[in-house]
Design a protein that fits this description.
By secondary structure, the protein is of the alpha/beta class. The protein folds into two domains: about 50-285, Aspartate Aminotransferase, domain 2 (3-Layer(aba) Sandwich), CATH 3.40.640.10; about 285-325 and about 360-370, no CATH class. The protein has helices spanning about 35-40, 45-55, 70-80, 90-105, 125, 135, 155-165, 185-200, 270-285, 285-300, 330-335, 360-370; strands at about 15-20, 20-25, 30, 85-90, 110-115, 145-150, 165-170, 175, 180-185, 200-205, 230-235, 245-250, 310-315, 315-320, 340, 340-345, 345-350. It has a seven-stranded mixed β-sheet with strand order 4-12-11-10-7-5-6, with helices on both faces. The protein has a four-stranded mixed β-sheet with strand order 1-2-3-15. Strands 13-14-17-16 form a four-stranded antiparallel β-sheet, with helices on one face. Helix 3 (about 70-80) runs parallel beside helix 9 (about 270-285). The longest helix has 16 residues, at about 90-105. Bound molecules: pyridoxal-5'-phosphate. Pyridoxal-5'-phosphate binds near residues 93, 120, 121, 177 and 206. The site of pyridoxal-5'-phosphate has 14 residues, from helix 4.
Length: about 375
């Protein structure tokens, strides 16, 4: 095999996928609880997304950044508020890279604060603010001037801020995804907000996973009463095609100049068209996402199992933390017709399609009851 496979793939070969279901080449049907890691907000093969991509593909597939695409401004409008600007990239990691570049251009040698268990990507820049030592430290030395504090630990945050008066920005994932579907505590966010205000820190919020209506609001930071100077988005943005964005507010809109950043591929015209379809639909689904998210959460809480430590999350970004690892849970689940994303063996993360129905949620719950 010449493909260097360093992923822990499922032992199944996909034939096709539709809505919340994936079908393998042997004719087996699986219910998908994580939708391409939170990417397929309208489910697999959504007819309108597919149709719009196809019709644009018939006209052109790629043009490069020499041309402004017909959908760029519409998508920028859909992800920004008045006074903000968006720049498009190809992925969440690239969005982190650009956010760091904007910050570094603004603050020079000053320091950037980040938090344990926060995930912002795997490039060298993104790893420099990545709160997972296991995937970060083997690549050291990384960018200088990055300071880590413990997520949800107010004392540690205060101590870190006091010891590093030259911190001038913070990279924050208010609802940690890869960190185990872990929301920031209100008191912790309040402390962070007051430190930002007192010290004039730039607040960069990573919304790659929790953003774009996954929690029922356009950005998860709205649940935390936060304001962002810089916001990163990706995953759901391109409707299954690679697209990321950095949203800048206030002074941040003036940092980048021609030549400061760019990509041959971004923004891909097909991804932009998909983004337009997806975002226009999601905007109208906020209440229903919240309602079905609450339903899912309550149903998860009603699963009776000695092995459940906690059920948590917001909207349709939910997790079950287990007390003890269930050996081969992922593969046992697949044999049972359900695809699960199990983090560190202990937390089952649910990032289903945002148009999942209550009946489909019920089907997931029935299978989970058998498994845990
Ligand atoms: C919060 C967060 N930020 C950044 C990234 C990196 O995004 P990508 O995998 O698109 O590069 C991820 C990916 O899971 C993420 O969850």
């Amino acid at each position: 095999m010449r493909y260097l496979n360093i992923y822990n793939n499922y032992d199944l070969s996909i034939d096709h996928a539709h809505g919340v279901y994936i079908y393998d080449k042997e004719g087996n049907k699986y219910i998908d609880t994580f939708a391409g890691i939170g990417v397929l907000a309208l489910g697999h093969s959504h007819p309108e997304v597919t149709e719009e991509i196809k019709s644009k593909l018939d006209r052109y597939a790629h043009t490069s950044n020499f041309f402004l695409d017909e959908d760029t401004e519409t998508v920028a409008d859909l992800i920004t508020s008045e006074g903000e600007k968006a720049f498009f990239v190809n992925s969440g990691t690239e969005a982190t890279e650009l956010a760091l570049k904007i910050i570094k251009k603004k603050i020079g040698d000053s320091k950037i604060l980040f938090f344990s268990n926060s995930f912002h990507g795997r490039s060298l820049g993104a790893l420099s603010v990545n709160g997972f030592p296991g995937i970060r430290d083997q690549f050291k030395p990384l960018l200088p001037g990055m300071v880590e504090a413990e997520f949800n630990n107010i004392e540690d945050l205060e101590r870190t801020a006091a010891e590093n008066p030259d911190i001038k920005a913070v990279m924050f994932e208010p609802l940690q995804g890869s960190g185990g579907v872990q929301p920031a505590d209100k008191d912790f966010v309040d402390k962070l907000k007051s430190l930002c205000k007192a010290n004039n820190w730039i607040m960069a919020v990573d919304e790659v996973q929790a953003g774009l209506y996954r929690t029922g609001k356009r950005y998860s930071y709205e649940h935390f009463d936060l304001e962002a100077d810089i916001t990163t988005a990706a995953k759901a943005l391109g409707g299954g095609l690679p697209l990321g964005a950095v949203i800048m507010a206030g002074e941040m809109t003036e940092v980048l100049e021609p030549g400061d950043h760019g990509s041959t591929f971004a923004p891909n015209p097909l991804a932009l068209r998909a983004a337009k379809v997806v975002l226009e639909k999601l905007e109208k689904m906020q209440d229903s996402i919240t309602e079905r998210g609450n339903y899912f959460l309550e149903e998860l809480k009603m699963i009776e199992s000695e092995n459940i430590k906690e059920v948590r999350g917001i909207g349709l970004m939910l997790g079950i933390e287990l007390k003890n690892e269930i050996p081969n849970l992922r593969d046992k689940a697949a044999e049972n017709g359900i695809l699960l994303n199990v983090l560190k063996g202990k937390t089952i993360r649910f990032l289903p399609a945002l148009n999942i129905t209550k009946e489909e949620i019920d089907a997931i719950i029935i299978k989970l009851k058998e498994l845990i």
